[in-house]
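Exercise 3.2. Students should predict the tertiary structure of the chain below and write it as structure tokens, then compare their answer with the key that follows.

Predict this chain's 3D structure.
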Amino acid sequence: MKQFLLVGLVLATLNTTAQNDSLSSGVYPIAGKPAGSTTDLSMFKAHASTLAPGQTNHPPRALNDAEELIFIKEGSLKVSINDSAKILGAGSIVLIMAGDKQSFQNNSDKPVTYYVLTFTSGSPVDNTRSKQGGGSMMIDRNSLTVKRTDKGESRPILDRATSMFTRLEVHATMLNGGMESHPPHTHREEEIMLLMDGKLTAHIGTKDSNAVPGDIILLRPGIIHNVKNAGTERCWYFAIKWSNM
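Answer key:
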């Protein structure tokens, strides 16, 4: 009897482990709605949404245990966070702190598509740190400073503490055709690259993988990586790093 109980316990443990597999470094299509845990995140998930003209995603609501980053792919989106609202166009970014109410509305005559990245840190929510860092943000792409480089362009977006992280850093990069982002390197912070346009070849560890618009490149701590524009035209992507160190 004890042997049967032991076998059952082992099988149950294996099944639980299989259902909670962490996300490994690699390329994930947002269309596949990737979800899982990482070294520093107890939960990460991503999806794409499209709103028809006049459509609202949902009534105002808050996530008390997660932050969200929104990246507008195409169209015009009215973003409401608590008592503030702003109309943002393609390439704009929204950062929503844990506990803040949000809703989105397409008040244009064309569809709008946006990507949603949702993070829950392995560390407790810190709303005081969030307020000190500036709270939720709605950032129009046209307001970003452009830094031209010999490889293309870079746009710093934010680098600050949030309700989930002691540091969250986001920037946008445009790479000219055939250019590499940087030599292969490693770092302690986890990182995601969200490809918005063009083609990339992602070197991750010992493997090369192709990425197309709507793909996420997830990089766990300490893995060697870089990306290369695999086309002849410019590509552009967002890079997101987080840390609780």
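Discussion points: Residues 2-19 form the longest helix (18 residues). Residues 72 and 91 are 5 Å apart (CA to CA).
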